């Protein structure tokens, strides 16, 4: 319905009022002053002031795309129903719509996509049973295993609260006191720490989850995304810096242009399966997110593939406002006792309510593509009531309202017992897999890893350097020795100085070079 003289392209404000002059505020005379009742101006400028919701604390810089997940109906060569009753996996060829958000973890919304950092790999499945969010990273492990340490980890990697500059000394001060991080650090400072783009990187759920079948029996699960068509590519520090000098949005542009030209990226979803017990035969705890499950014992089993074939229509409405949570599971999927996963499950959805609002799930990008009926009321930006009877917003009721759903299979009821304690897991084994990863790297990757660590540690105090060398030597003697020898050549600054972006070298020289090579100009 349009007013007289209005078309679909007539500019209005959000009240539907036609805007007849979008160039000039109302003033007393041509030169002003302006008046307080400039309604169109106030509506326009106050909305502009609020164009940005609070930035994500982590994963602020991101891009995304729509697509679909196509199930194989099997896990490896077995029927998938053997292990899970989740409907999206059951039939071969069954397609489920998805939205994927790729991101960098540490830096802000317009930071370079060439920085050394884990990459987020979050997938929202719009299934017939509601949404399933598989929220992970490109690397298959993490720095820590206890969620209590997560704010400290991020604070150490974020800019100094005084200088507002990321500083490698802060990072390694934390890492050198967190031996469980050695495995992740070995990946992060190797070429795996800078994927060439988002299309050519792996993804992982990182944490351990569970699958539950129709009989209510569960197995432990690890999820892995493998880029089956486009392959995997990483960058050296030097290559990344050269790319950054020309285009710091290169990964976003790469994904967008690939989809626009019809070169749709694909990933195969594989799972590793383990029986749901403590596995005393292993030298690590299978719920420890700083560890990999060995593929020779727990092979990657394909369950389906994902294709991204549509770019967002609006970045803010989709990529920026899309909201994920590790607790968003459908029937047939469940949590494990992984401590980090349990902490993430509270934190993720809580931060969405703070960042986007209490009714963030009513936004189209977050809403499930199925019937929704809740008794939730009010909250910021309530868009609609989620039920047929607007009067009965409680349950149970004999006069109307919503009713409970039927249990679709035997309920999963794991047995839990033990004392309430604040203790580490028994099998920490912080160094073995880090050493194995170092030895598996190609020679050029080892050189890059050592060079990047030496460059970053060079700005740290000697006490931090010594602690890191000690930990790296426990991973592999050659590994620690090479870093120690590199540090001897660079020396150390007992007072410490600002180290600059993680992995970057000669950051002090860049500051000096800007002053020395800047061209003088007269004031105007």
Automatic annotation (TrEMBL):
It catalyses: 2 H2O2 = O2 + 2 H2O. Keywords: Heme, Hydrogen peroxide, Iron, Metal-binding, Oxidoreductase, Peroxidase. Its EC number is 1.11.1.6. InterPro entries: Catalase, Catalase_AS, Catalase_clade1/3, Catalase_core, Catalase_haem_BS, Catalase_immune_responsive, Catalase_sf. Residues 488-497, 510-524 have a biased composition (Basic and acidic residues). Decomposes hydrogen peroxide into water and oxygen; serves to protect cells from the toxic effects of hydrogen peroxide. Belongs to the catalase family. This is Catalase. It comes from Aneurinibacillus migulanus. The lineage of its organism: Bacteria, Bacillati, Bacillota, Bacilli, Bacillales.
């Amino acid at each position: 319905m349009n007013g007289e003289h209005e078309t679909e392209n007539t500019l209005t404000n959000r009240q539907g009022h036609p805007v007849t002059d979008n160039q000039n505020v109302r003033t007393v005379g041509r030169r002003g002053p302006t008046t307080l009742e400039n309604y169109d101006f106030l509506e326009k400028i106050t909305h502009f002031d609020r164009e940005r919701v609070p930035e994500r604390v982590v994963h602020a810089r991101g891009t995304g795309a729509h697509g679909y997940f196509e199930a194989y109906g099997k896990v490896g060569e077995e029927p998938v129903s053997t292990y899970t009753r989740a409907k999206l996996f059951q039939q071969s060829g069954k397609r489920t719509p998805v939205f994927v958000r790729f991101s960098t973890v540490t830096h802000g919304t317009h930071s370079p996509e060439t920085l050394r950092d884990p990459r987020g790999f979050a997938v929202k499945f719009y299934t017939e049973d509601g949404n399933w969010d598989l929220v992970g990273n490109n690397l298959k492990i993490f720095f820590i295993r206890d969620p209590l340490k997560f704010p400290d980890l991020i604070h150490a990697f974020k800019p100094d609260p005084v200088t507002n500059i990321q500083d490698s000394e802060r990072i390694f001060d934390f890492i050198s006191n967190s031996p469980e991080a050695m495995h992740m650090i070995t990946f992060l400072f190797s070429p795996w720490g800078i994927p060439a783009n988002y299309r050519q990187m792996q993804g992982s759920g990182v944490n351990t989850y569970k699958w539950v079948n129709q009989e209510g029996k569960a197995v432990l699960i690890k999820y892995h995304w493998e880029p089956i068509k486009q392959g995997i590519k990483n960058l050296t520090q030097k290559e990344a810096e050269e790319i950054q000098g020309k285009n710091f949005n290169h990964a976003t542009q790469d994904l967008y242009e690939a989809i626009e030209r019809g070169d749709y990226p694909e990933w195969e979803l594989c799972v590793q399966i383990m029986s749901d017990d403590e596995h005393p035969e292993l030298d690590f705890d299978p719920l420890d997110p700083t560890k990999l499950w060995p593929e020779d014992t727990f092979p990657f089993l394909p369950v389906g593939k994902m294709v991204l074939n549509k770019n967002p229509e609006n970045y803010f409405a989709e990529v920026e406002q899309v909201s994920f949570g590790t607790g968003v599971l459908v029937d047939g999927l469940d949590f494990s006792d992984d401590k980090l996963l349990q902490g993430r499950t509270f934190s993720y959805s809580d931060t969405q309510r703070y960042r986007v609002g209490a009714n963030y799930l009513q936004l189209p990008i977050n809403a499930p593509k199925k019937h929704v009926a809740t008794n939730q009321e009010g909250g910021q930006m309530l868009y609609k009531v989620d039920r047929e009877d607007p009067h009965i917003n409680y349950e149970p009721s004999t006069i109307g309202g919503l009713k409970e759903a039927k249990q679709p299979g035997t309920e999963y009821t794991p047995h839990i017992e033990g004392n309430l304690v604040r203790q580490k897991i028994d099998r920490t084994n912080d160094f073995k897999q880090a050493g194995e990863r170092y030895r598996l790297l190609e020679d050029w990757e080892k050189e890059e890893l050592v060079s990047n660590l030496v460059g970053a540690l060079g700005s740290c105090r000697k006490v931090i350097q010594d602690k890191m060398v000690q930990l790296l030597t426990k991973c592999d003697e050659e590994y620690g020795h090479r870093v120690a020898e590199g540090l001897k050549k660079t020396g150390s600054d007992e007072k410490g100085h600002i180290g600059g972006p993680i992995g970057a070298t000669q950051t002090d020289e860049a500051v000096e070079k800007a002053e020395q090579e800047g061209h003088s100009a007269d004031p105007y």
